[in-house]
Design brief:
Organism: Podila verticillata NRRL 6337
GO cellular component, one term: mitochondrial nucleoid
CATH architecture of one domain: 2-Layer Sandwich
CATH superfamily of one domain: Ribosomal protein L7/L12, C-terminal domain/Adaptor protein ClpS
CATH topology of one domain: Ribosomal Protein L30, Chain: A
Shape: rod-shaped
Strand order of the largest sheet: 2-1-3
Radius of gyration: 40 Å
InterPro entries: Ribosomal_bL12, Ribosomal_bL12_C, Ribosomal_bL12_C/ClpS-like, Ribosomal_bL12_oligo, Ribosomal_bL12_oligo_N_sf
Number of helices: 8
GO molecular function, one term: structural constituent of ribosome
Number of strands: 3
Distance between the termini: 76 Å
Family: Belongs to the bacterial ribosomal protein bL12 family.
Structural class: alpha+beta
């Protein structure tokens, strides 16, 4: 057991690569010899090679003139190409925009916000807030009411929000729906 532990802790020897093997690998991966590109001049017609040589010597303006002349002579139509596929996505987003506007108009969830309250009805309002908000005691409900304007409940359906608003307004509070 002691030998296995010492064998694990002992420094390991690194095998050395012979220098000639490195040289031979370097020669194998050398970039000094140029490979022929696909469609290179060895397989191409000499007439086409001369045309490519002439085109590669043109300036950008001359190349643009060449392209427009080829389009007119060969009767090639201009096609509006979408850049990176953004045009179809933009059209879909534009078509979906009216639907989203309609959804915004039909709000389904409301927040009931206590704006202010009548001082005479403060005690009744505190008790009602204690009953509405789960988990708070009378002291927290008092601080909540005195800290108005505050949101009483969020994410309520319209019917429940209207009912809560009516209850709080009957107690003497000014309430708004958001």
């Amino acid at each position: 057991m002691l030998r296995t532990i010492s064998a694990r802790l002992a420094p390991r020897t690194v095998s050395r690569i012979a220098p000639r093997a490195v040289v031979s690998r370097a020669a194998f991966y050398s970039t000094e010899t140029k490979l022929d590109a696909p469609g290179s001049s060895k397989d191409a017609d000499p007439k086409i090679v001369s045309i490519v040589d002439q085109i590669s010597g043109l300036t950008l303006l001359q190349t643009a003139d060449l392209v427009s002349l080829l389009k007119t002579r060969l009767n090639i139509q201009e096609i509006a190409m979408p850049v990176g596929g953004a045009a179809p996505a933009g059209q879909a987003a534009a078509a979906a925009a009216p639907v989203e506007e309609e959804k915004v108009a039909e709000k389904t969830e409301f927040s009931v916000k206590l704006e202010k309250f009548d001082a005479a009805a403060k005690a009744k309002l505190i008790r009602e807030i204690k009953n509405i908000i789960p988990g708070i005691n009378l002291v927290e409900a008092k601080k909540f009411v005195e800290g108005a304007p505050k949101v009483v409940k969020e994410g309520l359906p319209k019917a429940d929000a209207e009912k809560l608003k009516k209850t709080l307004e009957d107690l003497g509070a000014t309430v708004s729906l958001e």
